[in-house]
Amino acid sequence: MSYSLVQSGANEWVNLKSKLYCHVNNSCEKRQQEYGFKPGTRLLEATGNIISIPTKFSVELVIPGLITAGAAIGCGLARRHQARRLAHLLNAQSSSIAELHELQATVAQQLGGGSFKERIKLSAEVLCDEPLLAPWSGEPCVAYRQTITNLLEVRKESTYTDSEGRNHTDINWERRDETLSELERRCDFKLRQGAASIALDPAGAELEMETVFNSVEPPQSNNNLTSRSLGVRRTENIFRASGMVFVLAECNDAKGELCLQAPAEGGTFVVRRGNEEDFSQAIRSWRRIWSVTTIALTGTSLILLLLAII
Fold it and tell me: Domain containing 13: what range?
């Protein structure tokens, strides 16, 4: 059996064993239509049969396929993050503040002060003798975050070629937000259950803040050829210095007194409104969302990549 392998390029001629010639772009349209030749096709002649084998991926499908694959990986990592948060919640010891003080006293008596450390979860009331005062809203709080954002429209140009080979340029204005400044402050506070209380160091905690101030002011800068300002947004979020909270944290006496703080060896540290059930449902919901999204994006990526090489 005799084989003849010929590589065709964008402007090359294909020399077949049967002396038939076909240009992969414009010439010999009859032969091109008969055998379905396309630019960049390798032609393999075996015992008179012509078989076309694609040698170039379809860029229009490969790039979206790779982007979708990257997005699937990102969603998979997000799902794993939620799974770890759920594991931290389930593995934490449910305790009362009074029980923690009793347990710490027992450990300190046997092993000495600074030896107690436990991952715990509990619900209690926020207690703060000297709360912060949020500057824009004037609300008392244990934490606040101020953000100033420039609301912009940015000029975007895109060029394309039509079927007749003519170039065209489309001009669009895309919305974009630019953060000009961000300031966050927190203060230590306590949690109270009846007569028992415990200190809490909020450094590193995921605080579920609420928005109490949101205002858009006139633009502060002049427009130019590439961007135009729509205004400046000022936002203030706070965590109020009162009310019930749910806490997932590490409890230790390393500072000389019992305190809730971020786990020294890594883990979830959360202070939020609601209870344990609300937090668990929120984690499980996000885990399901990321799982479904990961599966959908993975399937889409595989389909696009397979279509690109067919």
Answer: 3-56
| pLDDT, tens digit, 9 for 90 and up, residues 63-113 | 888 899 899 999 999 999 888 888 888 889 998 999 999 999 898 888 888
Do residues 236 and 145 lie in contact, with contact meaning Cβ atoms separated by under 8 Å?
A: yes
Burial class of residue 302 in the structure, from the number of CB atoms within 10 Å of its CB (0-12 exposed, 13-18 middle, 19+ buried): middle
First-to-final CA distance of the chain? 26
Are residues 139 and 39 part of one domain?
Answer: no
State pLDDT tens for residues 137-164. 999 999 999 999 988 888 887 787 877 7
Question: CB of 237 within 8 A of CB of 286?
Answer: no
Residues 72 and 209 grouped into a single domain: yes
Amino acid identity, position 171 = I
52 and 65 housed in the same domain:
no
> Total structural domains in the chain?
2
Q: Are residues 147 and 92 in the same domain?
A: yes
**pLDDT tens across 207-222, in order?**
999 999 999 988 876 7
On whether both 220 and 237 belong to a single domain, the answer is yes
Q: How far is CA 106 from CA 61, 97, 256, in A?
A: 65, 15, 15
Residue ending a domain, among 56, 79, 97, is 56
